[in-house]
Design brief:
heterodimer; A: alpha/beta; 5-stranded parallel β-sheet; 7 helices; globular; B: about 70% helix; extended
Chain lengths: ~200, ~150
């Protein structure tokens, strides 16, 4: 994302679901700063489902952890809606702490991105840009519906610097030690007999 | 063999975002930073309230699973309100508390460890604490938690 990139969210309809009022306000303030004006906020996934079933939104931003219906379940539900237009609604999950038991749900729910709290405007805006610029296919299978997860090698979307500073190439310099011999390499990978 | 269908249609947002008008990314980010700055005092008050609540939590005789869940929620709330740079140590301590509560689920929580976290969060958030003190307090927490957990039998 470049400083000179333009973003127009004037007519975009955004749904924000978070059980924490402060968190809802933070996201809402950021979206307004990005130019969005049609923002609907709800306190939980159940309320979000009811709204999504009645009207089309252009972007869903949801907390991962909410009572009754959490963000992962909400996105999974959205990805299995009957119409393709609903299914492909961009969805971003925001999480303060992902529990061990939620890691698989996060991977499999079909969200476009998962962002860690505290949210920075830069990260949120970049992710919105990525969603709209990336060429990832949306796939629907028996166990997974969502953006294709096999996209690592495509790199970041065109006209972006990369996702993290670490993505940029770095010079690691020359090797300090000499190369290992073939025997030494073999001994590293050969199965060893257990000593009893 | 399972059938996988590919939808190549782009979301409506892809079209809307490129429509004429709108704002430059830099302007949008500056506006968002200004909005964040305007809410900072309010966030610090909410963090303070969460820490007061945690202080009361520390007084519980035998915290139940629901009490630990509430503590996790309060700590997660603090994470959401922190400024990633200005509150780096507080953020790290709150994350460690969430991780501890998750790690020790199945009833292996130790109230002593919980109290250690709460004391640390309060010490880091104290208005008169400077960065060096905060870093030292956080270092102490990181060193003590594994010992206390071991002592508690986790």
């Amino acid at each position: 994302m470049l400083d000179s990139s333009k973003i127009n969210l004037n007519t975009a309809k955004v749904l924000v679901a978070d059980d924490n009022e402060n968190a809802r306000n933070i996201i809402q303030d950021m979206l307004r700063a990005f130019g969005a004006s049609d923002i609907v906020t709800v306190r939980d996934g159940v309320e979000a489902k009811a709204l999504l079933a009645r009207q089309q939104f252009d972007l869903l931003i949801t907390d991962g952890t909410m009572p009754e219906c959490d963000g992962y379940e909400l996105v999974r539900w959205l990805r299995n809606r009957p119409s393709d237009e609903e299914r492909i609604t961009p969805a971003i999950i925001i999480s303060a702490h992902t529990r061990e038991s939620q890691v698989a749900a996060g991977r499999d729910c079909g969200a476009n991105y998962i962002i860690a709290k505290p949210i920075s405007p830069q990260t949120l805006l970049e992710r919105i840009f990525y969603i709209t610029e990336e060429a990832r296919s949306f796939i629907v299978g028996e166990t997974y519906a969502g953006p294709d997860r096999r996209w690592k090698h495509q790199g970041p979307p065109a006209s972006t610097d990369g996702r993290r500073k670490g993505d940029l190439s770095v010079d690691i310099g020359m090797a300090i030690d000499g190369n290992l011999s073939a025997n030494e390499l073999d001994s590293l990978v050969k199965p060893q007999k257990a000593t009893s | 063999m399972s059938v996988v269908r590919t939808i190549r249609q782009l979301p409506r947002l892809s079209r809307l975002i490129k429509a004429a008008g709108g704002v430059y990314a830099r302007t949008a980010l500056n506006q968002a930073a200004a909005a964040q700055q305007a809410s900072r005092a309010e966030h610090l008050i909410s963090i303070g309230e969460a820490l007061v609540w945690m202080g009361e939590w520390r007084g519980l005789d035998e915290p139940t699973a629901a009490d630990w869940e509430s503590l996790h929620e309060a700590s997660a709330g603090i994470i959401g309100l922190c400024d990633a740079e200005a509150d780096a140590q507080l953020l790290r301590a709150a994350r460690l508390l969430c991780e501890y509560i998750d790690r020790a689920r199945n009833g292996k929580w130790s109230k002593d460890v919980g109290a250690l976290f709460i004391n640390t969060l309060k010490a880091i958030a104290a208005q008169d604490a400077d960065q060096a003190t905060r870093t030292a307090v956080l270092g102490g927490l990181e060193a003590l938690v594994p010992q206390r957990e071991q002592k508690a039998g986790n």
